Amino acid sequence: MASVHPLVEQVRSGLSRELQLLAAQGILPLSADELIALQVELAGVESWEISGYAKAALAETDPKLAAAFAASGAPPEVLRYFASEIDHPMVIEAVLRRRDTPRDILMQLGSKLTPDLQEVLLLRQDAIIEEPGILVALENNPELSLYSRRRIAEYREHLLPRERRAAPAAPLPVSPELDVEDLAALQAAKTLPAVGERDESTGLTESQVRALPVPLKIKLARGASRTLRGILIKDLNQVVAVSVLNSAALSEDEIEQLASSRLVVDEVLNEIARRRDWISKYKICLALVKNPRVSVGTAVRLLSRLSVRDLRNLARDRNVSDAVRAGSDRLYRIKTK
Questions:
Q1: Residues of 38-68 as b/e, b for ≥16 C-beta within 10 angstroms?
Q2: 3-state secondary structure string across 106-167
Q3: For 78-132, how does the pLDDT look when each residue is reduced to its tens digit (9 = 90+)?
Q4: pLDDT by residue (tens digit) across 187-224?
Q5: The three-state (H, E, C) secondary structure of the chain, written as one string
Q6: Cβ neighbours of residue 180 under 8 Å, at least 6 residues apart?
Q7: Quick check: 211 and 220 in contact, CB under 8 A?
Q8: 294-325 burial, b for 16+ CB within 10 Å, e for fewer?
Q9: What angle do CA 143, 245, 262 make, to 5 degrees?
Q10: Contact (CB, 8 A) for 64 and 86
């Protein structure tokens, strides 16, 4: 068994918050593999600050390093994180091709793969034979290509024994607004692995919700519970994500968290910045300015709303763009004359 670096053990012990923060930010003398695995662990801790730094650092990890780790050596929890939070094709392909990738991760990915990566997954006949639910996940993919659809039909006809084909799930209690196709999609999603937080209103977990067709997710966004909103707002399809902003009653705290998030699609941040009622809230405005995912033009435009103290801090903040730092410094000097 490979020895564990002493620094890794110290961080895992939780005795030093400062050390955890350094690890989350990637400021420790560890190998790339050790650091990535450690940051994945820290991304799941209760501390919002530590988990936020870890998620941000993982989002900025060089895809070549992440893909190399995913291809050989990454434990299942790292593969699962990559599958749910990292969307770079190089990384996802490495997860798909690895022979021992847990089958539930392949199902989770099947519902959101691009056409070229669908073909990579369909080459994994060994995994499909072991877990036919992978085909169900692919069929729920809104970007399913005609080629993939034909291959799935061939697999169902010639590759899978009839007794191993996915059985229909029990009916779900859902809104009367949903039609027969929607009900069928919800039932199919229940056959997928239950990974992540469960939404009580639908009975589906995060991985199952992500496997649903785009039109159905848009319908579910209307009046969604807080748990379901948290899942849908991080959807890779911007239409789904923005529909949550427009269809659900989000609290000010939720909007502030979204404004500082690096995991939502850019259009969510743009939509928040366009809403006067939201950017009139100081914390939301500040979160947008500090978020490097927000466009430079939008961030600079919002600087005039900030206090002298925050302008001074932003002028020294290396985590924001040069334009934001320069704009903050200029406004700070003007306001303190």
A1: bbbbbbeeeeeebbbbbbbbbbebeeeebbb
A2: HHHHHCCCCHHHHHHHHCCHHHHHHCCHHHHHHHCCCCCCHHHHHHHHHHHHHHCCHHHCCC
A3: 999 999 888 899 999 999 999 899 999 999 899 899 999 999 999 888 888 888 8
A4: 888 888 777 778 888 888 888 888 888 888 888 888 78
A5: CCCCCHHHHHHHHCCCHHHHHHHHHCCCCCCHHHHHHHHHHHCCCCCHHHHHHHHHHHHCCCHHHHHHHHHCCCCHHHHHHHHHHCCCHHHHHHHHHCCCCCHHHHHHHHCCCCHHHHHHHHCCHHHHHHCCHHHHHHHCCCCCCHHHHHHHHHHHHHHCCHHHCCCCCCCCCCCCCCCHHHHHHHHHHCCCCCCCCEECCCCEEHHHHHCCCHHHHHHHHCCCCHHHHHHHCCCCCHHHHHHHHHHCCCCHHHHHHHHCCCCCCHHHHHHHHHCHHHHCCHHHHHHHHHCCCCCHHHHHHHHHHCCHHHHHHHHCCCCCCHHHHHHHHHHHHHHCC
A6: none
A7: no
A8: beeebbbebbeebeeebbbbbbeeeebeeebb
A9: 70
A10: no
Please tell me the distance from the alpha carbon of residue 283 to that of residue 27, in angstroms, as a whole number: 28
How far apart (Å, rounded) are the C-alpha atoms in residues 290 and 296?
10
168 touches 186 (CB < 8 A): no
* Residue 20, token pair as written in the block: 């955890």
Strand partners, 199: 204
CA distance 45 to 47: 6
